[in-house]
Design brief:
- The protein is of the alpha/beta class and 275 residues long.
- It contains 8 helices and 17 strands.
- It has helices spanning 6-9, 77-84, 117-129, 149-155, 178-188, 200-212, 242-245, 251-256; strands at 12-21, 26-32, 44-49, 53-62, 67-73, 90-97, 107-113, 133-140, 162-167, 174-175, 193-197, 217-220, 236-237, 240-241, 248-250, 264-266, 272-274.
- A hairpin with a 5-residue loop joins strand 16 (264-266) and strand 17.
- The longest helix has 13 residues, at 117-129.
- The structure holds flavin-adenine dinucleotide and FE2/S2 (inorganic) cluster.
- FE2/S2 (inorganic) cluster (FES) is lined by residues 225-228, 230-235, 241, 243.
């Protein structure tokens, strides 16, 4: 198990500096924090909503200066409360926590679904600095739920890079799920690395494609998190704790946890429930 950075685990209370509505369900919250501004793509923070709950969120951007952001979908009680927050409201932050995606140059494929697109867009900026050749596939149920569409198209507009979308209702890009788009893309092209983030059933399909095509993979997993520093065990997958050994896992590690990956996680009472 990796050691966790003590300084990052101190809770800081800070003001929300800016809120951007990305879609009817998703908002990005910008804040000022020196540590998070040094965060890496794939790392996450624990967001404390005073008097209510503390929830994990990926860092969706870091910098310039001391700015960082999280991008949250409104899916339940805590995220509903977060979505009510405005500029100058107070939240608490611990982090950056966990490991990160390892950027590489060469020909890389990124596959993101829903808010999983946010950390991958953050990663894309690092990959382009390394002069990687990027293919970015992203999907959602509808066009309205496709977040960061203009940013992705702008970031990948340089020659040689590709951005393609799929929506389940066909309202934008190819009709269907993003894993179908990935399967077609991988039939035509060979990649040096795949990065993926989204719902675990999607990650499992991308993992199976990576195994079929013998392509290295880095996938960011979600589990219920309480302590986020490796103590409580609520985020375990096989021998790993997602909060400290992940959230990013390689194909080798995912092979080791095949019985659980894409199948089950623990609920707040420690019971196994389907993902
Ligand atoms: C490492 C990591 C990074 C994440 N990054 C993002 C992100 O960038 N954007 C985003 O919108 N969501 C992200 N999530 C998911 C987010 O934490 C949950 O959607 C959020 O906690 C839901 O809280 P809620 O009270 O609004 O919903 P609830 O009504 O409690 O639950 C809604 C869903 O969220 C899950 N969930 C609830 N509490 C937690 C928790 N403490 N830890 C993990 N999952 C939980 C539940 O299993 C359920 O599927 C991330 C999760 C992890 C583990
Ligand atoms: S949340 Fe990972 S061990 Fe507590």
């Amino acid at each position: 198990m990796s050691a966790y950075p003590t300084e990052a685990n101190f809770l800081r209370t800070l003001k929300i500096e800016r809120v951007v509505k990305e879609s009817s369900l998703v908002k990005t919250f910008f804040f000022n924090d020196k540590l998070c501004a040094k965060g890496k793509p794939g790392q996450f923070v624990m967001v404390w909503l005073p008097g209510f709950d503390e929830i994990p969120m990926s860092i969706s951007s870091a910098g310039p200066k001391d700015f960082a952001s999280i991008t949250a979908a409104n899916v339940g009680e805590a995220t509903k409360l977060l979505h009510k927050k405005e500029r100058n409201d107070i939240i608490g932050i611990r982090g950056p926590l966990g490991n990160s995606f390892q950027p590489t140059n060469g020909k890389v494929l990124l596959v993101g679904g829903g808010t999983g697109i946010a950390p991958l867009l953050f990663l894309t900026a690092r990959l382009l600095e390394l002069k990687a050749n990027v293919t970015f596939l992203f999907g959602a149920k509808t066009k309205d739920e496709l977040v960061f569409l203009p940013q992705i198209e702008r970031t990948l507009s340089k020659a040689g890079n590709v951005a393609a979308a799929s929506t389940e209702d066909g309202s934008y890009g190819q009709e269907g799920v993003v894993t179908e788009l990935a399967e077609e893309t991988m039939k035509k092209d060979k990649f040096d690395m795949i990065y993926t983030c989204g719902k675990e059933r999607m990650l499992l399909k991308i993992f199976m494609l990576a195994e079929k095509h013998k392509t290295p993979l880095q996938a960011s997993l979600e589990r219920l998190m309480r302590c986020a520093i490796g103590l409580c065990g609520s985020c375990t997958i096989g021998k790993y704790r997602v909060c400290v050994d992940g959230p990013v896992f390689t194909n080798r590690q995912l092979r080791e946890v095949k019985g659980e990956f894409g199948c089950c996680k623990r609920d707040f009472d420690g019971r196994r429930i389907p993902v």
